[in-house]
User: Fold these one by one.
Assistant:
Number 1:
Amino acid sequence: MSLAGARLLATALTLRPVSPGPADELLLSQTWAAYRANFMQADGRVIDRGAADRSTSEGQAYALVRALVMDDEGTFEQVRTWTQKNLQYDDATRLPAWSWGQEGTGQWHVLDPMPAADADEWMAWALLGGARRWHRPDYKHQALGLLAGIWDQETQEVAGKRLLLPGPWAKDRDPVRLNPSYWLPFAWRIFARDDPDHAWLELVSPAYELLDTCRSEGRLPPDWCYVDAATGVVVPPPRGSERDSDFGFEAFRIGWTLAAEVLWSDEPRARLLLHDFAGLADRWRSEGRIAAVMAPDGTPRVDYSYQGLYGAMLPGWSIVRRGRAEALWHAEIVPRRAAHGWGDLVDYYGQNWIWLGFALWQGAMGAQGPA
């Protein structure tokens, strides 16, 4: 490993850009308690109240990460146990089914057994963090099992470069359908440290290359990106899927990931790409909002904004537009504070991205996770 690579691994999840004060820690604690009360069952199931009370592997994974940040070992174990029993068919190392809920017959069970790579990565990352924080070798064993599944089922070589796919369903397709918001280099660096059996760092450069070339003429990353299976060259979405190139509810998460890469690994490619999100900061200042979904040229697709997007912007804007994050926080998120967290009572997704954005922005995640 190069000296630069070693430095990246050594510093991942240890830098604290801001030292959170008592008020910040109190807010994180209060909103975590509110989230548990309003979106989680006592047994560790996270409820998507906006989608017929289903549960998803993504929701379970976010809960694991938040419990880890809050040093809430009890909730972490409840979430992990429910997930293993209900989404992993009681096999701790099996990639979890992405969707669980109630059928028309009234039965509650897995609705779609297909895994989702973003949830699988977040879950493995949290488990490795829990293993270190709470001295739980069983968590590491589970994480390594998930990592073997991710590598075998959710990565593929395309034109000589290994890419993370959105799920096993995307293997061996042409064009290859990719979701850039699923690419988590900060997690791959940790995986490489704890799982030497797989070359996780091989994913990093191809992901950054595609994050660059998948961008639209409006300099925004798309929700979905397509590449030719033989050449790896970016191609337009297939007929009927043109809206996949929009910047929307998937792509906004990329801003958070890039900020994490800068703050934890001082990644220059991430810093460069964050300047596209600086353009959104300028747009917010001049227009008073950011549309929740935008066409590739930046034209709004909808006439509303989304607090989850604003939350995910906080840490990145604090890097490329100092002071703008503070203004965004007070203008868009503080006024939406409520007993259950923020904004919409049924929007668990937005709750998570506001909380994760605030936690990263304030440095509360700096000493957490698999350091």
Note: DSSP finds 13 helices and ten strands in the chain.
Number 2:
Amino acid sequence: MKKDFKFKHITSPSHYAETGGDSQVCDVLNELGQNVLKSSVPMVGGKDLVTQSYDLIKHFEPIIPRVLNPSQYISVDTFIVDLEKWWTKRFGYSPKTFQKRRNLLVDMVNHPVFPIDLLNLNPDQIDAYIQYESLNYSKETARDGKDAIRNKLKAIFMVAQAQGIDYSKWNIRMPSRSKPKHKIVPLPSVVYEMVHFKYSTDPYVNALYQYLCLHGFVVGPRVASEFSILRLKDVHIEEGYLHFYQPKVDEYRMSPLEPEIMCMSNRKSFKNWVDKWRPKVENQYSKDYVYLHPDGKPFTEQGLRKQLNTHIKPVWQQFHPYCMRDWCAIARLIRTKVLSNSFDFYEVSDWFEHSDISVTQHYTKDTKKYYMMASFDWIRAVLKSQKCLGEVNSLESENSKNGVLPIDFSPVEEAKPPWVRTL
């Protein structure tokens, strides 16, 4: 049965009457009573509330502790183990980032002059350590410079945060970032030599590092971290692109590539590697990784970095795996200059899928200088076959004396992918 509600009459000011008359309020709660609205969750109070709260804390605290109590640990090693769990589970940060900070913490604990006690953080000791490191780093190599000190402070602040310490009151200033260094990359003639150098008498080992050189310089990955986990499912040969995971940014990157590096049978292409060389060592441990150690097992990140340095440094002493990414960014920016007579940072930024154009500019800081030394398409020059011999130009004259093949590095006509139909 529908209940009729009574409305209380409230006299409104005269100006309300001009816009609709007197106001009326429906007082439903007083008509129905206060017991109509009840919480669906029973209220707990007194002793029961304390018991319930204790049970919840007892259940969740061992899994994701809010803070770590340093007095409960008898050694730094056990504390660092729990610190990793706290860092990765409570905040969801990358275990790889923690491992880097863990190594820095170990160095600070074992410092010969100002060792840091992680179980009893002392701001004065930390400040003395930072001041000592700032004054005693190698300015020639920039080792343990500003960026290293920043990373060490981040590691210390992580420990303080885990222990519930407000480190903002320590009055320790984070050093500013160091200025970008000049990018030292090999010229195309040197990269060409790396791609065709004889690294071993073992045919597979020789092919492995030749292919890694070409793919690394042309694709421009973070070589050790991204190529060590590259899978066959990431290589789309018929479509002409790679779609691979980037652990550093936790995203996938799609890289459309030239047909010479994707599918051509007379080049060191991904198709040749997958069809011809990889099956020679593939076994039950290989899974679907693209690059395999001679024993058939996939590379670890550290293992791949070490092997690249070991094999390629004899060809070019200044080599380090990350220079492949720097070279690719510079080479592709020079290509935009060769094809359109202007440096197109945005095109290269889109190709690398950088989050900001300033990242691209950081990679290509010295591009104009390299363009003055070699004003032609670097990518095309490196992708040329060994049979494409020509006259020695000024860049290769010095190398030709040392037995390097005299390759013509002048620009060539763009090759069309085999899947593109010519009208």
Note: Confidence is low (pLDDT under 50) at residues 5-19, 388-423.
Number 3:
Amino acid sequence: MTVKKALEWAGRVLKEQNIETPVKEAGVLLAFVLSKELSWLYAHPEYILSPKQAERFTSAVRLRSDGMPFQYISNKQEFMSLNFYVDSNCLIPRPDTEILVESALSWLKLHSRGVHRVLDIGTGCGAIAISIARYCEKTMVEAIDLSDGALEIAKKNALYHGVHNRIQFFKADFIHWEAQTPYSVVLSNPPYIPSAALNDLMPGVREYEPLMALDGGEDGLMFYRAIAEKLKRLLYPEGALFVEVGRGQAGHVRGLFDNKGLKTTVYKDLAGIDRVVCVEMSGKNS
């Protein structure tokens, strides 16, 4: 099987299964299997795949045609210009979440006094915690998650990026967990999909990503309420909270903290959607 024939076959299979941009995805899959750039494929259409390469490519195409996200096939996702191992034990990090990390990093640099204690709630593959530790050396990070599988992945990623000595991962159910010592910064991309809306998610998300990391309760706000109730115990008096929110949720989440007399700020993502709510303890009303 040549590169040209492989791409033609994969494009047909993916198109039949209603995969968007099947030609592009066929190229991405083959480039992954061959460990080549896309440009190389198109420059070498007559290259003949080895039997092992052909078998791996066929398997990858079948998985993708069944709806499995490419990131779970390749076990790789880029986030904050860093590569992370991912599989179905954890959510795939999204570009929108980079707004959460960048906002927190800006705050940390502005308040650069000594070493900051940082908490990441629902760490998943560790993308948020590891990015904070990687780009702000004056941090000691604690990251919690309820999934054993996700925590193992997060530890693996922290070791790969050389920040494992500044991150402590541990299993905890945040709803029933209490902090022993407050933090300078708390971050979370919590589950925020209303339970009834889970069935409406795209098949690649609904059937492959862990629903536990998506289900935000009846109205999607369950975890934000829990964070709001614990915030005074979570943060130092001058600390800050950063939480990612879903489309249309920013006003509701902001209200949970405004009602406690706290200063809130909303940051938009690249599409102009309200994506991150920041809460600063120093903004308490008198």
Note: Strands lie at 77-79, 82-84, 116-121, 139-145, 167-171, 183-188, 235-244, 263-268, 274-280.
Number 4:
Amino acid sequence: MATPLDLDQLQTFCAIADCGSFTEAARRVFKTQSAVSMQIKRLEERLGQTLFLREGRRVSLTSDGETLYGRARRMLKINAEIIDIFSHNDLSGNIRFGVPDDYAVKLLPVILSSFQRTHPRITVDVRCQPSEELLEGMRTGRYDIIVFTQGTMHQFGELFRTEKMYWVANHGGEALAGDPLPLACGPSYCIWRADALDALSRAGRDFRIAYTSSNATAITSAVLSDLAVGFLPESALQPGMKVNADDHDLPRLADAQIAIMRASHAYGGIYDALARHIVDTMGNLPGRTPAEAAE
């Protein structure tokens, strides 16, 4: 009978895979770097495979390491679930949570205020950033849980909500009539920007990037000031916007996909409590018509 794998070794392995550094992983798992190196050596000997490629101070997973990573995370998740079943402690602690600012204005107060009422001993430190920066922050250890809008582009993003995307403009403004069409959008790495520009190009619609910002509030301001036309998911629509301007022959946009991601340590206990609350609250929001969403 094969000896079971050591969960502590798997936790260390996942921490290294998350951040790409033995030094940073040692800080995260509260061990010395030599202890971390010894754990990985023993895990590699146990499996008979090399799990990391070492390039200077940076490390990356080998193909065998990638095979192990997803399974190791599932084992850590199951372990946390078992501990929760037999634990009778009140939930308390701190969670570092990241959310795109596209959703912060309308949804964040609803999500977190209700969570704090039901879990008064859990504190949540929130940072609002673009999805790409949230993903980088997860890699560098700044977050325990994030919500982001590129769910299908990352292996460990759990997709939990899909929303329609709408073209938006100022009511009674002139930006929609612009030729080329002036656009307000996120930076070049923004997936919504890439989808919108591709849709316009396929439709043969001429456009120009008139306003660029990684801040959703700035984009909204540009649209409401009639400086440009923008595009937003239904949860982020604001009063005063002309929504889904079919009369100006704008192409249909790809749906927005919203996902949640956890660090490899963020299973069970307080982390499950917040993750479930986010998915239940945000995932069950009813769909709205453009007119209802902009009211």
Note: The chain has a mean pLDDT of 87.
